[in-house]
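Notebook, p. 212. Picked up where the previous page left off. The plan for this session was modest: take the two constructs that came back from the sequencing core last week, fold each one, and keep the raw output in the notebook itself so nobody has to go hunting through shared drives later. Recording the first one now, exactly as returned: residue sequence, then the structure token string.
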Amino acid sequence: MRRLPGLIVPLLTVPLLALAGCGGGGQTRTAPTSVPASPSPLSPSPDPAPSPSPSPSSTRNGLCVPTMYMSTAGRLAYLKDLSDSSHGASPAFFMTDSGVYLLAKETQRPCEAVPFQLSWFRVEMTRAGSGSSARYSFTYAPIESTTLSAGPRDGRVVGSVPPPPKGCSGTLSVLYVGEEITEDDLPDGLNMPGGSLDWSLVTLDADRALSAVFKPPAGASSC
């Protein structure tokens, strides 16, 4: 458990537009309403070690991108580079408060399911003050870390729905490739959501982090 003494988090002080581009995931996205869950396996085999990682730009065959023999660094670069043609520069591999999604254009689609990691943390919130002057201190506590896989078809990844907030505890979800995300990788400050969303993107300094989403409890104002 990581305690952050004396740290305060302002309530509703960050406008929605300021959240775009946070967490290594590009623009803030809303969950698609008509995309089926991806049938990808939940526990893919570890990366084969002997073969070098192919570059996505040199292995594309016009139909899909071979990813089976990519190194960890190669998978990370590939997933970061995916873009969604129907949403401009928006990422095709992204996370919202309802899970992880793949919406890849055909020329970038993986030929097989691509493994990645997902970790969830409880964010215990303690409120001080009231109204616009309310501040929060918080404590991180790990919930679970798991390996999932995305693709080759579009959809929400099975098993990626985060645990819901409860009581005075929010949920921080971190999408990454490589070594497990620990409490030391988590940010020293969090912003409460603003605008029409009840969750916000979070920036992590760790290069292996693709995206992170914070969802506070619905009753945070009474904590």
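Okay, moving on. Second construct, recorded in the same format:
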Amino acid sequence: MFYLAVFVFVLFMTWNDYSLILTLGVVLVASLIMFMLRFYYPLSLETRIDRVESFLRKQQKTPGVYIYYVFANRLDDEAELTMEQIRGKYTQKVTQATYSAAYGFYRKDMVAVHEAVQNMRLSDYRTYYETILLLEDGQSDEARERLQSIKKQWMRSTLLAGIELKAENRDTAIQHAHEALNFSRGVNRYVLYKEYERVLPEAVEHIS
């Protein structure tokens, strides 16, 4: 429907002798708005879990996005296949590193996470996985100190929830999980929601 509308619009503008620059400008703006509504918004800004899930289910031809759905729903049979598609599409080690770290964490393979971290640029994501490694090694104090340098609030709260849950401070973990969900959007919020649905269901009781 969108492409049909664009086609009709271009014909109308051409028949009425509007300038080519004006016509192209309007088409580009309309295309940008459509991209925002159909892809960027559900990917990065949407807060409704059902809408993000509906968006992710349709992304099988975009493995770099579909992998969020696979990991969030623990689809083991699809995980390796989707990762192979990602490795084939993104050949640079730096680009692969974040996906490899996420896949290693998904499989609880901390050796793979450690190897992936070595290829990541300095960023919140690298610090996030470095903190996870410290936490998995039982270095909770060092993990708390490390995560303070992370700028993204949802990441800090997610890690704090994990630290408190590991320490069996469930009420405090729930509080940080709420913070993580409140500060996250799009696919990050969806992945957190699905994880807390399994391990900390009290944190998602009133979230949809």
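Notes on construct two before I forget. The two ends are 30 Å apart (CA to CA).
Flagging for discussion at group meeting.
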